């Protein structure tokens, strides 16, 4: 049975709001700095997609640092084009992985309208998909193919929604077919949070969850990257997706048990 969580006292709510205000202001400054760095990288004749991925990495690192999120990373960092397939626990997930590996994330369209995060990442190459709209999905696949051709990893969350971290839902075929056509490896990514209730699931809205994060005394995320899975060894995108899901389950290990009851 999940423990009963009492409403925080007014003083604690005020502290969270104050900390959130500081983080929002600092995030705005980070956005301005990111725009300036992006212009400088373009001036240095760096490929536009690569420049965006590098700036996104640095911005995500800065945002995690501002919000007190400490990441530990295990496993080899992929170099060159690859599909990064991760379990999905929180709205923090794309920030965490992008801070670890310069990449092009795929995210649901709603994120583009979120305060703090949306406007910033929209300028830095995130691919937004409107699930349920075949034209949007086709456009994202084309854009992801261009990113791979430019030598960049593409980040995907094939569960299609978040969980508490106690399970990994069946994977959608999605970009696994693209990985097979492009002949790029799939890198399994396993994410787990401490405290586990940083998971963002169900009908939770962004702002209350954000305020909870702002009020945490500590927040840690463990990032585990598995060895690359070569698509040529699998007969279909579905088989590839299932194999990668099993790799992620293995990487998570006992962390799934810790997330039960959140």
Summarize the structure in words.
It is a single chain. The chain is an alpha/beta fold and 262 residues long. The protein has one domain. The protein has a seven-stranded mixed sheet with strand order 1-7-6-2-5-3-4, sandwiched between helices. Strand 3, helix 4 and strand 4 form a beta-alpha-beta unit. The N and C termini lie close together (9 Å). The N terminus is likely disordered.
Low-confidence stretches: 1-7, 13-18
Provide the succession of SSEs. HHEEHEHEHEHEHEHH
The largest beta-sheet arranges its strands as: 1-7-6-2-5-3-4
The chain-level structural class is alpha/beta
Shape: globular
For the record, the count of structural domains works out to 1
Number of strands: 7
Q: Roughly how many Å is the radius of gyration?
A: 18 Å
Average pLDDT confidence is 80
Number of helical stretches of at least 4 residues: 9
Largest sheet: 7 strands, mixed
Helical content, roughly? 40-55%
Distance between the termini: 9 Å
Percentage of residues in strands: 5-15%
